[in-house]
Design goal:
Its EC number is 2.4.2.14. This is Amidophosphoribosyltransferase. One of its GO terms (biological process) is 'de novo' IMP biosynthetic process. It is an enzyme of class 2 (transferase). Mg(2+) binds at residues 301, 363-364. It is a single chain. The protein is α+β, with helices and mostly antiparallel strands. It has two domains: 14-249, Aminohydrolase, N-terminal nucleophile (Ntn) domain (Glutamine Phosphoribosylpyrophosphate, subunit 1, domain 1), CATH 3.60.20.10; 272-441, Rossmann fold. 29% of the residues lie in helices and 26% in strands. The protein has 18 helices and 28 strands. The strands form eight sheets. A seven-stranded antiparallel β-sheet has the order 4-3-5-2-11-10-12. It has a six-stranded antiparallel β-sheet with strand order 6-7-8-9-13-14, with no helix packed on it. A five-stranded parallel β-sheet has the order 19-18-23-24-25, with helices on both faces. Strand 27, helix 18 (475-479) and strand 28 form a beta-alpha-beta unit.
Length: 489
């Protein structure tokens, strides 16, 4: 029997979204709304942990979309208190069982701790083995649980010191939210791979922490600041306290946040995502013009780039594809017929728009190529005379290890085929990609430190830090100089 696999329509997924509130009587409800704004970052599971008036923590979590997990109103009724943290999950490390749904909560003899994590710990396998050899018993297969064991095994005197010591042992991309009876903590990895922001409610001054600024806006919180690489921020009854657990930091925000993952209304380190995508589209049009009648963007994350391309090319930007907004996930069996049917459930071509027209199809990326192939076929079936594909990002050639579910090159089309071969496989009249330099210039990150402030490893093979437990998988490429690793900062 064929195994059913849960994937999204784009075959590229981000790991998680996290949200927390400190010192507001409706903390859990606000966390629910904040997570709803982050649902695009994870659709396999959701959870919320609240802190009651007496300091005790209470957990509610489950598999599925946020609305499914909290469909029973009693779950939200249980989440009383003035502080809460929440999580929406897409699995890149660990299976999709209930035991891996966050926030994790542990009951130690002297305190409770809840933990939510966005990212991927690249030395998790090594650390887990060391901890198990010392007697640690893991309740999940998620790399997130490692931090809890490291905290508990620390010999430091205070919880803050234990947490700092534990964070220094982790490598990779991570944004953490922790909730204890006395405080809420936010911590970001030394490279700042994942976006992480702090806001404040205007009425009572309660602090809000989220994966994206769009989630702050959903609860009417005002942006305060981005969490910086290597920072550990404590929220308690005396306010917000910013410190660093390491001074060895650089900024290497994941370029895929601007290309695909983040909401267009979010700002990441001062750059609006919609504007960045629009500039990517313009740059793609400058680098790769083609004679055509219209521009059509692939809904939804490519619409901004399509606007930019059309503007630069002086062509109409038409709605040649329509997305069914009510399908959140696809249950796709690995057969061509059922994959194509799933794409048709999500997208429809509009014959009245594209028939007889030369179409420039703008998309944000090509990963496996199957979705592109089906969309092009849809447009041709709808009467398009030509379909020229323009990708508003570079070719995705190398795996990701910082929180995106592409940790091998097996499914990366560009890793195994030339551009001409890819064009023939997907059935386009032409295919072009934005250059790496064009991408960097389009994002235009206001950053004056070393490098350009971005991680573009998927496109150029330049990893801003070693990837430890995954290093062996790239050993031959590293020996050949195809991929490179920066030393620890």
């Amino acid at each position: 029997m064929a195994t059913t696999t849960i994937v999204n329509e784009r075959s590229l997924n981000e790991e998680c979204g996290i949200f927390g509130v400190w010192d507001n009587p409706e903390a859990a409800e606000l966390t629910f709304y904040g997570l709803h704004a982050l649902q695009h970052r994870g659709q396999e599971g959701a959870g919320i942990v609240s802190k009651k008036a007496d300091g005790r923590l209470w957990q509610e979590r489950g598999l599925g979309l946020l609305s499914e997990v909290f469909a029973d109103p009693r779950r939200m009724m249980n989440l009383v208190g003035d502080s809460a943290i929440g999580h929406v999950r897409y699995a890149t490390a660990g299976s999709n069982g209930i035991e891996n749904i966050q926030p994790f909560m542990v009951n130690f003899s002297d305190m409770q701790i809840a933990l939510a994590h966005n990212g991927n710990i690249t030395n998790a396998k090594t650390l887990r083995q060391e901890l198990e050899d010392e007697g640690a018993i893991f309740q999940s297969s998620s790399d997130t649980e490692i931090l809890l064991h490291l905290i508990r095994r620390s010999k430091a005197l205070t919880f803050d010191e234990k947490l700092r010591e534990a964070l220094l042992k982790l490598r990779g991309g991570f944004a953490f939210l922790l909730l204890t009876p006395n405080a809420m903590y936010a911590a970001l990895d030394p490279h700042g791979f994942r976006p992480f922001v702090i806001g404040q409610l205007p009425d009572d001054g309660a602090y809000v922490v989220a994966s994206e600024t769009a989630a702050l806006a959903s609860v009417n919180a005002e942006f305060v600041q981005d969490v910086q690489p290597g920072e550990l921020i404590r929220f308690d009854n005396t306010g917000m306290h910013v410190s660093k657990y390491t001074e060895h930091t650089t900024l290497n925000i994941d370029a895929m946040e601007y290309i695909y993952f983040a909401r267009p209304d979010s700002n990441i380190y001062g750059v609006n995502v919609h504007k960045a995508r629009k500039r990517m589209g313009k740059a793609t049009a400058i680098e790769h013009p083609v004679a055509a009648d219209m521009v059509v963007g692939v809904p939804n994350s490519s619409l901004s780039a399509a606007m930019g391309y059309a503007e630069q090319a002086h062509l109409p930007n038409e709605m040649g594809l329509v997305k069914n907004q009510y399908i959140a996930r696809s249950f796709i069996e690995p057969t061509q017929e059922k994959r194509e049917r799933a794409v048709r459930m999500k997208l429809s071509a509009v014959p009245a728009i594209v028939s007889g027209q030369r179409v420039i199809l703008v998309d944000d990326s090509i990963v496996r190529g199957t979705t592109s192939k089906y969309i092009i076929k849809m447009l041709r079936d709808a009467g398009a005379s030509e379909v020229h594909v323009r990708i508003a990002s570079p070719e995705f050639k190398y795996p990701s290890f910082y929180g995106v579910d592409m940790q091998t090159t097996d499914e990366l089309m560009a890793a195994h085929h030339s551009k001409a071969e890819m064009c023939a496989i997907i059935g386009a009249d032409s295919l072009e990609f934005l250059s790496v330099d064009g991408l960097i210039d389009s994002i235009d990150l206001p950053y004056s430190g070393p490098g350009n402030g971005l991680t573009t490893a998927y496109f150029d093979g330049h990893y801003p830090s070693p990837v430890y437990d995954y290093q062996a998988s790239l050993a031959k490429l590293a020996e050949a100089g195809v991929v490179t690793f920066d030393p620890e900062p």
